[in-house]
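Notebook, p. 212. Picked up where the previous page left off. The plan for this session was modest: take the two constructs that came back from the sequencing core last week, fold each one, and keep the raw output in the notebook itself so nobody has to go hunting through shared drives later. Recording the first one now, exactly as returned: residue sequence, then the structure token string.
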Amino acid sequence: MGAKMHSMSESCIPNRREAKRHQTALRLQECGLRLTSERGFDGWTIDDLAASADVSRRTVFNYFEGKADVVLGPGIEVDPAKVEEFVAGGPTGGLFDDLIVLAHDVIRERTDEQLITSMREAIVKDSRLLALVHERLETAATGLVECVRQREGDDFPAQQARLLLKLLLTFFDHALDRTADDPGRTFTEHFDATVADARSALA
């Protein structure tokens, strides 16, 4: 999770212009993932991407800084209102359960199941992309650790907070594997099944 905290109004496409930008960015990412699947990450250029998406090279750079950003898409975004609710002790009052609620909010921002599967396939084939994903996840985890400690108090051990976040990230990784093995169910369903299995194993 390379997490920037954006407002929900920014991420929910509040007007036609934002809707068009969102659709263009999504099309660019889909084309980038398709090119990566067909040729490998090193097998295509920004010019190839622009031609595939029927846009100019300049348009690509209006949305993404480079090829890796195209394939991975935007960083994981968490609605500040949801973060505030979490820090205040909500929405359920249970730390672990509330982290799962935040995870669901993140998943809802990436509702295209095929896109999630395509991203996984691209990432596992290229160590550089995998490293960038881990870097994003580490950045997001660091921010959420601070949120956990704000919620639980300064006495809450940072190592325990990091452990919780690493467990959550493991759930994401495992759900991706399950999605690849059983594409007939959605990523969200596999994520929920992973959490349920963990609860059962640790009960």
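Okay, moving on. Second construct, recorded in the same format:
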Amino acid sequence: MAFNISLRCLTIVAIAFFVTLQGTLGEIECEKLRHDTCAFAVSWEGKRCVLEKRVKRSGEEEYTCRTSEIEAEKQKSHIETEECIKGCGLERKSFGISSDFLLEPSFTRTLCSPLCYQNCPNIVDLYFNLAAGEGVFLPKFCAAQGANARRQMSEIKTSGIVAPGPVHSLQFTATAPQPVELTHEPAVAPFPQY
């Protein structure tokens, strides 16, 4: 009799655990994520989660996870794996979402490496869109690597030119970089074949 009660209790606990786990993993809400799983996660709505840090008057640091307005391409309810975080040269305590990392040659080498670029579609999609916002096509940027890639990013950084939306023609001044051929469709990050 005691064995049946213990088995029933264990079954109830197991079911409760799996329902909670399925609810947590099935419908990820950024605001409910811990700070060590927030960065590079995607909510159930397909919006990217961002880690924010606030310093209280006492000097104590407080971390919160928020839902950003940045949408992920083809990803929903996703917490990035440790393998991809490390393989792409990132850290869990990354605050906000920025294209600044693209200016660092060591980061771009790691991002463009087969370990990251071919195995971590969520991270590649994020940086593909950040690069596009800076006027850079990530696959071409990764193919350039080395001095050409650094020159391309430094020209973007110093020119102040923002990637334009789909337009029919652009006017360039003599000091602006050479025009880039634009399409009328938004660019989509390449998805690795598994």
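Notes on construct two before I forget. The first strand starts at residue 47 and ends at 55.
Flagging for discussion at group meeting.
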